[in-house]
Specification:
It contains 16 helices and 35 strands. It is α+β, with helices and mostly antiparallel strands. Among the domains are: about 80 residues, no CATH class; about 220 residues, Rossmann fold, CATH 3.40.50. The strands form nine sheets. A five-stranded parallel β-sheet has the order 7-6-8-9-10, sandwiched between helices. Strand 3 and strand 4 form a beta hairpin. Helix 1 packs antiparallel against helix 3, helix 2 packs across helix 4 and helix 7 runs parallel beside helix 11. It is globular, with a radius of gyration of 31 Å.
C-alpha cells in the first residue's frame, strides 16, 4: 500500500492535474491525463521488470519536464510566441480558423482575419460565417493569400467589383507547393463545388521541389507547441537582412548547384530539375482531372518574379549569385507553363507583359505583390472574362454590411444602412460621384431606414435585433426632434411611409403574449390609429400606391411558409395575394403600383422575384448562389435596387429589369 501511495505521489508531482488543466485550458483534460498517467504508473509498478520501471519513470519525468517548460514559456514568455497560422491536414496545411492579427512591416501594414474555415475575411465579417458553395475558387500560395494587403485590396476582392453576382473564395496558403494545393482541393476545395478554379503559379518557387509532402512529427509539434516554434524559429529562421541583397531572390540561389538543380530560369540543368519539370506537368494534369471530374473548369495564372520584370534587380541578383546573364533564360517558366496549358487545353493568364509596367508591382524588399500588383491581376482577369461580367451594378465601395437601399425623392441619392467597426450608420450617397452623407450614427444597431417623400423626415429601427428589443424612431430634420412610434412596453421594426408621407406602418409586438400586430401611426395625430394581426406572425408591411391597401407577409401557422397578403384599410378585409411553396420576404411596390418585388428562398438561398399584381404572374429575376434581398424600386418599374450577400462580399446593387 505504501509503495502505491509513493507512486501516486510522485506521478501527481510530475503530472499534476492543475498544471495540465492550465496547459490544455480544460479541467476535464487535465484530470483525465493525470488519472491516465497514474493508472498506467500503478500497472507498471506491479511489473517485476526493473528495466521497464526505470524506462517508464525516465520517460514520465522527461515528458513532465517538457510540458512544464511549455507551460512556463506560455505563462511567462508568451510575448515571444511565434504565432501558429496554420492547421495541418496530413498532406497539406491550411490557414488556421479565427485568426485576427495586424501584420506590421517596414513596407506594409495589414489586417489579417480568417473565418471558422480558415478563409480570409474583412474586418466586419462575422468569423462564424461559413462558405458552403462558390462560383470561383482561387488557389495559390502567399501571392494569392495576399497577407501584405488588406482584404479589400486583394485581387480576389477587386475582381468581385466587376463580377458582383459571383461568390469568390480566396484559398491562398503561404508557402504551399502545387501538390499541397492539389491536396487542399481534393480535401476542402471541392466541397465548395466551384464552377471555375483558378490556380496561381509563381515563377518564384513553384517549379522546384514539385513533390507531395506529408506532415511529419516535427510539423505537428510545431503546430501544437509554442516553445518548440520559438526555438526552431531562432535556430532555422533566416532574417531577410542576412540575405545577400537583403531580400529573397528565388528562384535564384547563391549556391551554384542549387541553381542547376532548382532554378527554372537557369539554363544549365540536372536530373532534379528535369524531374521537377515532369512532375509539374503531371501535377497540372492531375489538377485538371480532379476539377473537371467535379464539373468545374481549371484556369492557370502565372506570376513572374521581380528579376523577370526589373532589369536592375536582375543585374543585382546575378551579381550576388555570381551568375552570367548568357546562362539565364527569363522566359523558360512561361514557355513551360504555356506548353502544359496547350497540352491540357487550359486557359493560361500570363502576367509577364502586365507586370513589365512603368510602376513596380512588388514591394521593394518583401517578395510579395503590392497593391498595384493585385490591381494588375484583377484587371487581367477582367479582360479575359469580360463577357461574363455581371449585369449587376455594384453600388457599394466596400464590404460594410450595407442594406435596405431606397432611391430618395430627389432621384439622385440612395438611402441605406451601413456599418463601420463599432458603429452603425444611416447614409445617403449620390448615384453619380459617390458623395456620401452620414445622416445618423449609433453604437446600437440602425436598420430599415426610410425617408419621407418631402425628405424632411427619417424613420428607422434601432436597438438589438438578436433580443427582438427594437423600436421605431421618427426624426424631423427641421425641428431636430425624434419620436418613438411604438407603444410603451412594445418593440417594433421595419417602418415604411405611405406615399403622401402622412402615415407610417410597421410591425409591433409585446402585448398579449407577443402577438405581432401591423400598426399604422398617423404623424399629425401623433398616435397609432390602426392595428391588426394575422396568422402566426406578420411582417414587412407597405402601402399601395393609393395608400388604401397594406401589403404584408404572413405566416399563417407555425409550420407554414410566409405568403403575401393585402389588408384593405376601408373595409378591414384581408385577402391572399401570393402563396408559394417557398418562403417570401422583403416586399416592395413599383412606382406604377402594378408590381411587387420580393425575395424568396426557392433554391435554398434568397433570390428576387417580380409579381404582376394584375395578372398574378411571377417572374424570377436573379439566379445566383448568393443572397439577394431588400428590393426597392427606383424611378420606374424596371429600375430595381437591392442588397446582397455573396460569400464574404456584400453590399448594395442595381439592375434593370428586362421589359
Amino acid at each position: 500500500m505504501r509503495s502505491r501511495l509513493s507512486v501516486i505521489a510522485v506521478l501527481l508531482l510530475l503530472w499534476n492535474p492543475v498544471t495540465l488543466s492550465i496547459l490544455f485550458q480544460s479541467m476535464v483534460w487535465g484530470v483525465l491525463i493525470s488519472a491516465a498517467v497514474i493508472l498506467l504508473g500503478l500497472l507498471i509498478s506491479k511489473n517485476t521488470s526493473l528495466r521497464l520501471k526505470v524506462w517508464a519513470f525516465n520517460i514520465a519525468a522527461l515528458l513532465s519536464i517538457a510540458y512544464h517548460a511549455e507551460l512556463l514559456f506560455q505563462q511567462f514568455a508568451g510575448i515571444k510566441d511565434i504565432p501558429n497560422l496554420y492547421t495541418l491536414h496530413n498532406k497539406f496545411y491550411f490557414n488556421k480558423p479565427f485568426l485576427d492579427r495586424l501584420f506590421n512591416d517596414d513596407e506594409y501594414e495589414s489586417l489579417y482575419r480568417t473565418n471558422c474555415q480558415g478563409y480570409r475575411i474583412d474586418e466586419l465579417t462575422n468569423a462564424d460565417d461559413s462558405i458552403k458553395k462558390c462560383d470561383w475558387l482561387f488557389i495559390g500560395d502567399s501571392f494569392t493569400q495576399g497577407a501584405q494587403v488588406n482584404f479589400g485590396q486583394m485581387f480576389t476582392s477587386l475582381i468581385y467589383q466587376d463580377f458582383p453576382d459571383k461568390i469568390i473564395v480566396n484559398a491562398g496558403i503561404s508557402g504551399a507547393g502545387l501538390y499541397e494545393e492539389l491536396n487542399y482541393y481534393r480535401s476542402m476545395g471541392r466541397q465548395l463545388h466551384p464552377k471555375r478554379v483558378y490556380l496561381q503559379i509563381g515563377v518564384f518557387n513553384d517549379f522546384k521541389d514539385v513533390v507531395e509532402h506529408k506532415s511529419t512529427f516535427r510539423d505537428y509539434l510545431s503546430e501544437k507547441s509554442s516553445l518548440y516554434r520559438y526555438l526552431s524559429y531562432q535556430i532555422e529562421n533566416v532574417n531577410s537582412s542576412e540575405l545577400p541583397l537583403g531580400r529573397w531572390m528565388e528562384p535564384f540561389f547563391v549556391n551554384h548547384q542549387d541553381n542547376v538543380d532548382y532554378n527554372i530560369l537557369y539554363k544549365p540543368s540536372s536530373k532534379k530539375k528535369e524531374l521537377d519539370r515532369q512532375r509539374f506537368e503531371k501535377c497540372i494534369a492531375e489538377f485538371k482531372r480532379c476539377v473537371e471530374k467535379d464539373g468545374g473548369e481549371l484556369v492557370l495564372i502565372l506570376l513572374p518574379t521581380k528579376e523577370q520584370v526589373s532589369s536592375e534587380m536582375l543585374k543585382a541578383t546575378l551579381k550576388a549569385c555570381n551568375l552570367d546573364e548568357k546562362d539565364i533564360d527569363l522566359m523558360a517558366a512561361n514557355r513551360l507553363c504555356q506548353e502544359v496549358a496547350d497540352k491540357e487545353e487550359l486557359i493560361l493568364i500570363d502576367l509577364y507583359d502586365d507586370f513589365c509596367s512603368e510602376e513596380f508591382p512588388f514591394f521593394e524588399m518583401d517578395e510579395h505583390l503590392n497593391i498595384l500588383g493585385h490591381e494588375l491581376i484583377a484587371k487581367k482577369i477582367l479582360a479575359e472574362f469580360s463577357e461574363e461580367s455581371s449585369r449587376y451594378d455594384y453600388f457599394s465601395l466596400a464590404n460594410k454590411n450595407e442594406r435596405y437601399p431606397s432611391l430618395l425623392s430627389d432621384s439622385i441619392s440612395v438611402l441605406y444602412q451601413s456599418q463601420s467597426r463599432g458603429e452603425y450608420l444611416i447614409c445617403a450617397k449620390q448615384i453619380i460621384g459617390n458623395t456620401t452623407s452620414v445622416l445618423w450614427s449609433s453604437s446600437k444597431e440602425l436598420i430599415h431606414p426610410s425617408m419621407s417623400p418631402t425628405m424632411g423626415e427619417l424613420i428607422f429601427t434601432t436597438g438589438y435585433q438578436d433580443k427582438q428589443e427594437t423600436e421605431v424612431i421618427l426624426y424631423n430634420f427641421e425641428k431636430d426632434k425624434q419620436t418613438t412610434l411604438n407603444e410603451v412596453g412594445t418593440s417594433a421594426s421595419i417602418p415604411m411611409f405611405n406615399n403622401s408621407g402622412t402615415q407610417i406602418v410597421f410591425p409591433q409586438w409585446g402585448f398579449e403574449e407577443n402577438t405581432i400586430y401591423i400598426a399604422v401611426y398617423d404623424i399629425a395625430a401623433k398616435e397609432i390609429i390602426l392595428k391588426f394581426a394575422d396568422g402566426e406572425e406578420c411582417w414587412r408591411p407597405i402601402f399601395s400606391k393609393d395608400d388604401q391597401i397594406i401589403y404584408y407577409i404572413c405566416r399563417e401557422t407555425e409550420k407554414s411558409n410566409f405568403i403575401i397578403k393585402a389588408f384593405s384599410i376601408a373595409d378591414k378585409k384581408i385577402k391572399t395575394i401570393l402563396r408559394t411553396d417557398y418562403n417570401i420576404w422583403d416586399i416592395a411596390i413599383s412606382p406604377s403600383g402594378k408590381y411587387l418585388a420580393y425575395a424568396g428562398d426557392k433554391e435554398g438561398n434568397w433570390d428576387l422575384f417580380l409579381l404582376n399584381l394584375e395578372k398574378g404572374q411571377t417572374q424570377q429575376l436573379t439566379y445566383t448562389l448568393g443572397n439577394e434581398w431588400d428590393p426597392s424600386f427606383g424611378s420606374s418599374d424596371y429600375d430595381l435596387w437591392f442588397a446582397g450577400e455573396f460569400g464574404f462580399n456584400n453590399g448594395i446593387y442595381h439592375i434593370t429589369i428586362n421589359q
